[in-house]
Amino acid sequence: MSETNPAAPTDTSVDAAPHRYTAAMAAEIEARWQDFWDAEGTYAAPNPKGDLAGDPELVAKPKKFIMDMFPYPSGAGLHVGHPLGYIATDVFARFQRMTGHNVLHTLGFDAFGLPAEQYAVQTGTHPRVSTEGNIENMKAQLRRLGLGHDKRRSFATIDPDYYKWTQWIFLQIFNSWYDDEAKKARPIAELIAQFESGERAVPGGRSWDALTAAERADVLSEYRLAYASDAPVNWCPGLGTVLANEEVTADGRSERGNFPVFKAKLRQWNMRITAYADRLIDDLDALDWPEAIKLQQRNWIGRSEGARVDFPIDGENITVFTTRPDTLFGATYMVLAPEHPLVEKFTPAAWPEGTHDVWTGGHATPAEAVAAYRAQAAAKSDVERQAEAKDKTGVFIGAYASNPVNGEQIPVFIADYVLMGYGTGAIMAVPAGDQRDFEFARAFELPITCIVEPTDGRGTDTSTWEDAFASYDAKIINSSGEGISLDGLPVAEAKARITEWLERSGVGEGTINFRLRDWLFSRQRYWGEPFPIVYDEDGVAHSLPESMLPLELPEVEDYSPRTFDPDDADTSPETPLSRNEDWVNVTLDLGDGRGPRKYRRETNTMPNWAGSCWYELRYLDPHNSEALVDPEIEQYWMGPRQGQPHGGVDLYVGGAEHAVLHLLYARFWSKVLFDLGHVSSAEPFHKLFNQGMIQAYVYRDARGIAVPAAEVEERDGAYYYQGEKVSRLLGKMGKSLKNAVTPDEICEEYGADTLRLYEMAMGPLDVSRPWDTRAVVGQYRLLQRLWRNVVDEASGEVTVSDAEPDEDTLRALHKAIDGVRGDLEGMRFNTAIAKVTELNNHLTKAGGALPRSVAEALVLLIAPLAPHIAEELWRKLGHTDSVVHQDLPVADPAYVVDESVTCVVQIKGKVKARLEVSPTISDEELEKVALADDKVVAALDGAGIRKVIVRAPKLVNIVPA
Fold first, then answer.
1. CATH class of 694-894
2. What is the pTM of this model?
3. Cα separation of 735 and 350, whole Å?
4. Cβ atoms of residues 207 and 568 within 8 Å
5. Which single residue of 54, 430, 483, 829 has CA 20 to 30 Å from 454?
6. Are strands 585-588 and 597-601 parallel, antiparallel or unpaired?
7. Contact 335, 418 (CB under 8 A)
8. Tens-place pLDDT, residues 460-478
9. Distance, CA of 535 to CA of 540 (rounded, Å)
10. What is the 3-state secondary structure (H, E, C) of 842-910?
């Protein structure tokens, strides 16, 4: 806003105080120490071995691995909201170094993905060129903040030396399967050996030797943890690519670009993350994560216990999963997802005799009805299909299935409220107990059988019901058949009994189902990791040998996938790589003994999530060209230890928005690598901390268009831009909202240390807070007062003395030390700054030269928060080594406790006296002192005492007789 900024450091007395701490001095100090840290390798964290080995004494100390979530190098650069988490982890890392730890803290760049590709399409600039330029700009901005990163360990996901190992991990996943008995991934070669030996039966009953290569590939594809399949996908014509479920918004549009998303069937790569659903849920218990994030992951995975039930139809079965098998006697019809693969098989040529007109949709044949309804459903998103619309739609397919508990023939429909991606894509409809089924049954004149005794007085005549009745407490009724009766049982007992009957009868079994779907891993993009997969002339997929990695992206002239009318669902992807014939069609010797052969490369690329699924491991051993990571190095930094049974990064800081994307995917990759013996850590991140957001006011004109916040004027409580009144609302900070403030601006005006202190002092780290440039001056003034307490502003000389501090100063100092250490350990950086400020103010008021011991302790306390000024003052105080690796002061307990505390004395619950007593006084001593006090004696006025309750040192409660 354009009002005068009281924070602006415009001292007019600089000539009189040439050594005053100003923005110009801060800039000079900060640049000089950043150069020193780089030259000296101050933040280099030694490994126990390898090319980054060194300093065995430091390696012998406890380790701390501290990480930020991968930044994406945007062309817009950073605004002051972006560094919040980076500064916080830097403060914490500095604290850990000063408390005796070997700290690994570095930062790389997540650089594949859509933004760079879109920029390339618009400008004709190769995405690598623009991305690398953005990275350099971001590095410069982050360096200016004084972040203590081990720069030897930094990389970008677009570096071929990095994505070689992303491709290598993909091949480990491709060449493995999940053994349900062992509950772990195993090499696919072990599965093949089981098929060859006959230990495991080949699906279909044939011998392994009798299968063709293509048939064997099809069998293995049903087991591989990475597999290609024709499956329903989220097709976004406007982006020209398919999307994972997690990339589709709640209203059925693309998260990026806000385009419509349609269901289509395409051949795509998938990751069998569902095999790990149980472990992904169960292992959350041992992680130190926010409960809200754990809950989001549990809900996304969606584990539910129930039963699988087979409904016979034409000699085959339609299988459903239900959490309420006790309601089977109330199943009066079935519904399949429109995409269900059995629909065509069970759809007859003509309508069966007696078909109700309302079931046919007005079509002459079942095939016509099914085709028309499928087209209608394909135009809706999953969210739209699941919306609680009162008008239920569907169509009878012309077939009946048999209810296994009573043999009743029930009609089979397709309806869009059943999704192929959830459960089995088929449901048994129990309209008495499910509202959607109830509304569908009413619309299609289907029977409704009451199977749970209503407890709300409505009775059992469903013709009078206005809605369904669902209960887990009521008793089961109308549920008896041959060999089974559930009548009169409570729900839990009925579920157990019917499940046992299903298993005994061979028509079902108790099972667990998950909401989680396999991870769609293909993108129709150029700017991503190429798949290390080639196809032979029979269409069989082969993995490239490790010697051919990395498979680098070819140079292309056109980076864009073919996009379409966003509303045209009848389209299919065309990838940029598919247009490069020389790269796609190759002759290779894969080292499998078959010699050179012709192959076709995979022309999809991996999603941008791939590179961030494992980057914590590359930080450990970034220059290893022979292995993903050296086992000893991985064990040292990430292996299991006391309190961290699954291992992982000691602290991971980032936004809560990645709860079910990056975090879930990274956990899956870690577990596969753990199962295969490549790492000792089964979880990537032991402790997770979600920082809040720095917000800013957004000002909009009468059209709703954002106007530049810096040019808005405040007059009489209203806001004006160019004379016109505008609205103000607190929201995100960003270039598009015209309210972004860059860290460069604040560093120019105040210095990086001031920016660091302000961002940490704004409030608790996990809470969002509004940015206020005018408030930055408070931290700037703190640094100026700190500087004056050590340095003479006129001469530049240090003013400390060798005198011993008095007791008041010692108490203030040690209380600050005790408080700051605890706050830094607990990441309560705002209160740590408050305690440093309180101490500094105490010293300022005391006047005179600071005792050297106090000045040095003060500098060490602020060093994690404001490292540049701390280094400068540490050097001025006569030290030649860096402050970074100094020991943080430890409080003397004798000075932390108060000399005296106030004890309240109550009689009949009313305060009659206040006593100043020792904080270590005993209950017996305190009772004697209280009873001898003149005010207490007078208040008792000779009355006897029935009871004295003492809570030393703060309370005495006297109960008169």
1. mainly alpha
2. 0.84
3. 61
4. no
5. 483
6. antiparallel
7. yes
8. 999 999 999 988 888 999 9
9. 5
10. HHHHHCCCCEHHHHHHHHHHHCCCCHHHHHHHHHHCCCCCCHHHCCCCCCCHHHHCCCCEEEEEEECCE
